[in-house]
Amino acid sequence: MLLFVSAAHAQYLWIDEKGVKQLSDRPPPPSVPDKRILKAPGKASFNPDAAPMEEPAAPARSGPTLAERNADYNRRQSEAAQAAGKAADEARQRAETAANCDITKKNQQAISDGIRIANYDKNGERYFLSDAEKAEQEKNNRKVLAGCK
Predict the structure, then answer these.
(1) pTM
(2) Which of helix, strand or coil describes residue 82?
(3) What is the pLDDT of residue 70?
(4) Where do Low complexity bias regions lie (predicted)?
(5) Is residue 16 a contact partner of residue 32, using CB atoms and an 8 Å limit?
(6) Quick check: helix, strand or coil at residue 14?
(7) How does strand 37-39 pair with strand 21-24?
(8) Distance from CA of residue 115 to its chain's centroid?
(9) Is 141 exposed, middle or buried (0-12, 13-18, 19+ CB in 10 A)?
(10) Alpha-carbon distance 17 to 101, whole Å?
(11) Which of 142, 46, 47, 148 is nearest to 99 (CA)?
(12) Which residue in 83, 85, 98 sits closest to 147, CA to CA?
């Protein structure tokens, strides 16, 4: 009868990797170090008056926290929005430049062909460009067209 009593008394007490006390009639898993086994058959019992055992170290983080990931996501979204805005501005600028170049080419062709070019003064009256004004306009057109290539 004493043989059965000792088998029933075979209990294990240990602290797992999360810091929680575990009580079982089976031995702890092999991954539990001996210093965390508080009670085992054939081992001295746990002494509550002994110096307290140090807390298990917090498990090492394998990656960023949720807050860090959220901040990174918001930063990337902001950068993407800025890049999209910049690309849209550049596309608009290229379209405006292309339209200005097209208008300037047509204006230059009209001057080269000798077509009379009309303009309006501040009173709203129409007048035709003189040869000196056409030469000045042609000079300005060449400057603009130099940047269009």
Answers:
(1) 0.46
(2) helix
(3) 94
(4) 48-60
(5) yes
(6) strand
(7) unpaired
(8) 58
(9) buried
(10) 73
(11) 148
(12) 98
The two tokens of residue 127 are: 């007048």
pLDDT at 56 (0 to 100): 58
Burial 56-67 (b: 16+ CB within 10 A, else e): eeeeeeeeeeee
Alpha carbons 56 and 59: distance in angstroms, whole number: 9
Q: How many C-beta atoms surround the C-beta of residue 14 within 10 A?
A: 21
Q: What is the pLDDT along the chain (149 residues), one digit of tens a residue?
A: 545 545 555 688 889 888 899 988 888 998 988 888 888 887 765 555 555 556 556 666 678 888 999 999 999 999 999 999 999 999 999 999 999 999 999 988 988 888 888 888 899 999 888 889 888 989 998 888 888 87
CB contact at 8 A, 128 and 117 = yes
Q: Which residue has the tokens 């930063």?
A: 75
For the chain, count helices (H), then strands (E): 3, 5
